[in-house]
Each structure stands twice: as structure tokens, then as C-alpha cells.
Amino acid sequence: MIRMNISIKNLKDIVDMLGTVVTEAKFKIGINGISVNAVDPAHVAMVSLEVPKSILSEYDVDSEEEISLDLEKVKSIIKLSSSNDSLTITKDKDKLKFEIGTIIKSISLLDNDQITTPRVPQVASDDYAVMPKSEFEKGLRAAEDVSDAIRLTLTADNFSAKSTSDADESEMILPKDLLKELVCNGAIKSSYPLEYLLKLVKSISSNEDIKISFKSDYPLNIEFSLGSGTSERIKGRFLLAPRMES
Amino acid sequence: MLFSEITAKFMEMEKTTKRLELTDILASLFKDAGDDLKNITYLIQGKLAPDYENTEFGISDKIIIKALSNISSLSEEEINKILYKNGDLGTTAYEIGSKIRQRPLFKENLTVKYVYDNLTLLARSSGHESTKTKINIYKNLLMDSSPDDIKYITRIITGKLRLGVANSTILDSLVLAFSDKDYSDAIETAYNFHPDIGYIALLLKNNDIERIKNTGPDPLIPFKVMLAERLKSIKDINEKMNHNSAYEYKYDGLRTELHKKGDVIKIFSRGLEETTMNFPDIQKNFKDSYKFDSIIIDGESVPYNPDTGELYPFQMVSQRRGRKYGITEISKEIPIVMFIFDILYLNGKSLVNLPYPERRKILEDNFNDNDYFKLATRIVSDDENIINKFFEESIENGCEGIVAKNTSDESVYRAGARGWLWIKFKRDYEKELADSMDLVVIGAFNGHGRRTGAYGALLMASYNDENDTFESFTKLGTGFTDELLFSLPEMFSDKIVMKKPARVNTKIVPDVWIYPEIVMEINGAEITVSPAHKCAYNLIEKDSGLALRFPRLVKIRNDKKPEDATTTKEIVELFKMQKKTK
Fold first, then answer.
1. Active site residue: B38, B205, B232, B250, which one?
2. Cα–Cα distance between B536 and B531 in angstroms, integer?
3. Where exactly are the structural domains of chain A?
């Protein structure tokens, strides 16, 4: 059986984050929590989330199970509630039942076989920077009307994000003292599609820090936290494939 | 097998127009295909299943352009420019695929199975979200493919693979790949009863020659109908038949196969296309009238005036084809009677190897005429006066003429074959050329003067079924209404190709090459020897072929495939017949 109680804030953060890459997702409901991997149709961007059971006020799962959902339907349920609410979710055969106050809504589960289980690529880099997400977002927004790609550079002294087109140019430089952490064993640079990156960063709360790691012409890995919670949080990871420079 | 192995063969095939080389390339592909063999036989035809399953991709060029724009950061307008330059969406996808600098996080192993499964998903997706799903699947394939792979995948889903190999070439390649003996006759017969190359491929690969030899009609699988030869006089027919024949009315309707198995009744056209949707009335009437477990009958569906019982011409029934709406109203206004003239299968048993008189007897024992189903009117006689009277009567009753049916012990049902067991005789055989011909458009010449902006003439070809080529036979410029004439550029727009297609054989070079897909029914005055045309080249006279003088369009035959066109062999027969009567 599956029965849980989740705050609207946490559910909304999960759904919005997944919504940056997919409209349908397959969740693994485990004994100790929920995990989900979603990749966009072109296999360029991937979101992975780990939801520990400790952030759920009720969590009753006797064996691991996969369920697939249409995220748009979950969004419409979230719209019915206010941000301080929490809701109870119960699985009933091939439906998922949501109870929020006086309202009970059931949505049908999707066929698990129809939703691809993405292969999570092994990505690892020793070089990284930790920064406030709001600073990073500023640099992305500045580049938005310049190009559809952004080049990230990491040196021992700073982290920068630069976009150029035939006509315009935009660059953000975050020196070491504005970064929470910086580890760099040699300068690296790589370009990424801006649209995905901006969509993702916008979905992270403005007071969060993010950890960005990459290598030259190598997938970008961003780690972040989501939702409310004091001791444990929802752990998120975003992977973005590089764009080769011509 | 990796899809890139198919891509490599496709690239080889594009470099040659020689049939023998094409056959060799395909045979080597089939040998390496392993478990993917069946799917590969469909993919090389640009399909996912045999024709009669009507699997269509349902994706327009516009959607592909949208997906390409989506993935490349080029605007749709820019992609249209590239397309205009290339004239081919496959090459455009190649060009864009080579320019994509965005890498994916991971690539799927692009196996034949992976491509086939994804294309099947793409074809099956329907409903209001289907465009999005189709775009996503295509994008997915594009990111997983090399530029060369995506070129052919794009051509497959837009129906423009055009490798220049017809079914007969594919069958030959299969024999070459899997058999050391020549079973081509048995294979041809099997294919005519079960026109699914994938099915034949598996039997050949498993060396199951017995099953190939025993392949007969199968309820709910359309077969290629038996066809009739033609002669110019009843006297000739009587002699050819050794005075052993029956004569039936030749109804002017739509050739119809009706299949029933259990509770399912399906109707197919002579083009093996399922037309049950267009004839729900025939389906219902059959269900209400007869109780057979399983049956296959062959006949002609003819529209009639419900008030007088008078038969309407064929054109009235074609109004019903391709219509999904208002069919109930139309079936009341233009009801249809199916004239049954043959039976191939009854309650679990094939009847095709029984002689015609026995099959006719089975029909008579099992069918009582009603308003919707009647047995074809016939006589058994060799008296020319009686046959002539029967012929006159058939014309008065709204028929095209009569068909003689051999009544000897040899008179089996031969699927897909035109043979002397059936011989047709039509009224217009007496004037000018014996009969109209169905020719294939292979090229067009730009129009001048009043025809500026349209085509001035079309280059038409016969089908040489021995070497699977289309041989130029005549230049057609008359018989078009203005409306039709000015609609041709639009009709041909997606069939124009940059160079001479592999299967086309012509000395005359048109302004525009048209990929052989459109069949037109043509009348003409006379067949003459001509050094300019390639039809029957060197067969009648050295360095010369045959040409049709004063051709005139009768109508466009959307129900025929190019391989159903009049064959070069038939034209040679007509030429000889014409000489005899001069």
C-alpha cells in the first residue's frame, strides 16, 4: 500500500522542478522515500530528485513500487489548495487519491511501460563552485537576449558566464570572495543551452545555494535542495549536456 | 543489427540504378539481418507493416520542420530555405543533424529494433497530443542518430525513401539470400495470396518451402485478384478457349474482395487497400444475409438506382470512396449490389485449386440472390450467335461487356495473374485501339502560352514487370480539363525528384522528373515503332521501341499502383493484335 501526507510547498517544488524537463514522470516509491529521474525528449537535460521520508508527516509504504503520473494533473490539484496546506495521497488500484481538506480528487496512473526510465549517466568532476542561486540567475538573465547558449568558465580566481552573438555580448564574473566555495585544479570552460539552464534555476527558491561542477565539453552538474524541512531536505540534481563550440 | 548497417546499404543502393546490383546489395543485407529480417523488409519499403495494414506515420513535412527547428535553434523559415535548396527533407535533416552542436547526455544504441519500435510508436500515437508525441519521438531519434541515419529515417517517415526497389526486386533478393534453388513461381503465387513480404521472408529464411508452396488464400488477408486477358472478337475468344468456356457479364463497378472470419467481415479493393470503412452497408448486409464461419468471395460492387434497379456507372461508386462522413445517407441514395463471380475459401477450406465450374457450383449452392448480393449473370455456350446476343444484352443492362471463363479442369483461381483462363471482351474493342491502357507518369514538360505555369505534356511509361522498370511509351498532352491541368503541379509537387529515378528507362529527358507513383488511364489511336521510346526496346525492331500515337487522358487511376500499370508485354501483344487486324 501507499499512503503519505506531504506539504503543498514540497509537492509544488517537486512538480515544478520536474516540469522543467518533462510532462509525465515515473516515481519510485521506496521504503525510505521517493526518487525520480526525468529526462527531456532530446536527452539534453535531466532532473533527479530524492525525497526522504522524514520530510513527510505521514509515510506508509510496505514495498517498493513505481507509479507514473501526468504532472499537469497534479498541478491542477495543487492549484486547488493554498501554500500552507498539506494533502494526503493514497494509491487505490490504478488511481492516486488526493485529499485536501474537503476535496477528494483521484487521478489515473499512467502505464509505467510508456514512461522511459532514463539511464543516469556517470558524471563526475573534481572542480566546482558553490554560489547563491540568485547570483547565478542574474548572469543567465543578462545573457537571455544575447544568445541561446552560455559559456561557463571556472578558474582558481573566479566563476564566469558569458554569451556572445554577432552583435551583443553579456558577461557575469563572480570573484572568489562572492563564492561560498571554489575548487579548481586548472581552468575549465564549457558551453550549455541557456533555455534549459534558466528554466531550472528559476525553479529553485531564491535564497538557496547551488553547487555547480563541470569539465570542458562535459555535462554540467548542479546540486541543490528543494522544499521545506530543517534537518533533511529534498535533494536535487540537474544534468545538462554540453554544446560544442563551432 | 545496428541501423547504421542499413544506412550503409541504402547509401550503396543510391549509387546504382542497375537492378542486379540492387538485388545483390539487398541480399547481403537480408543475410546479415538475423532477427530483424521481417522488420527490415518493411523498412526498405519505407513501411512498418504490409500495405493492407494501413500503417501510416501521420506526420507532415511541417511537423518535421518544426522538430528540426526546435532542435537546431534555426527558425522554421531558415529550415524551409535549406529544404528549398535540397528539395528533400532527408538531406535537410542530414544537413541540420551535422550542424547540431548540442550533445545529448546519453545516446541510445541505434539498433534496427530501436528505430522500428520508435517509428511504430510514432505511427500509433493519435489524439490531440499526438503531434507533440510525434515531434518528441522524432527529436529523440535525431539525437541518437548519425546525420546519415537521420537522412533515411526522415525519408522513411515522410514516405520518400524511394530506393527504386519494388516488391519483385525484394522477393528476388530474398531468394538470392536464402535459397539455392529457384522457387520463384511458388514464391510469386504465395505472395499473390499473402502479399506480405515479411511473411515470405521468414518462410524463405527458415527454408520452409512446403509452406511457401501451400500458401493459399487466408480470410482477412487481401489477395491479388485474378485478372483477364483481352481479345478483339468473340470468335477469337471461342477459339482460344477451345470452345470450353462460360460467359459472364463484366460489371462496371469496383472490384471487391469480401472476407469473413468469425464475426469479422472486411472488404478490400483490388489495390489490397481495406475499404470496409467506405462500404459499411456491404458489411452489414452480408452479416444479415448469410451465416458462414469463414469465407472469401470475389466480385464487383455496382451502384444502382433503388427506384428502378437500373445499374449506375462506376463513377457513382467512386464518389463513396475516401468518404468517412455521410456514408449512411449515401448508401441510401446510392445503394450497392455486389455481383459475386468467384469464391476462394469456404468454412476453413481453400477452393482456389478447384476448377471454375466447381467453384461456381459452390457459389450457386450457397448463395440466394437478394437486393445486395447476386451471382454474376452467365451463360455456358460456344455458339457465337448466342454469345453475341448475351454480349448485347450485357451492354443494355449497363455492363462493360463480357468475360469468358475457361471451364476446363485447369481452370484454377490464379491470384494476381493475367492469363488466358479469363478473357474479357468490351464494346470499344472494335474501334481504334482495343482497350485503354494504364500508364505511369515519369516526367513532365513545362507548359507554354495558355499553359504557362502548368505542364504542357507528361512523359508516360509502361511497366516492364520482367526487369521492374518503367519504359517511356508516349507524350501525353490532351484530354485534360483546365481544372485538372492546372492542378497537376500541386498533385506532383511531392513527387518531383532531382534526377532520373533508378527504375525509369527513357531516352527522352523531361523538364521535370516525376517519381513513378501516379497512374493514368490513356486511350490512343495506334501503337507504332519508334526510335525515341524505350518501351519494348529492341524487341520488335533493332534500336527502336514502341510508342502510342495520339494519346488522350481518360482518367487518373488513384486505385492503381505503378506496378499495376499496363505491362510492356501486354503492349507488345496489343501491337501484334493490331497488325493482325489491319
1. B250
2. 11
3. 2-110, 128-222+233-240
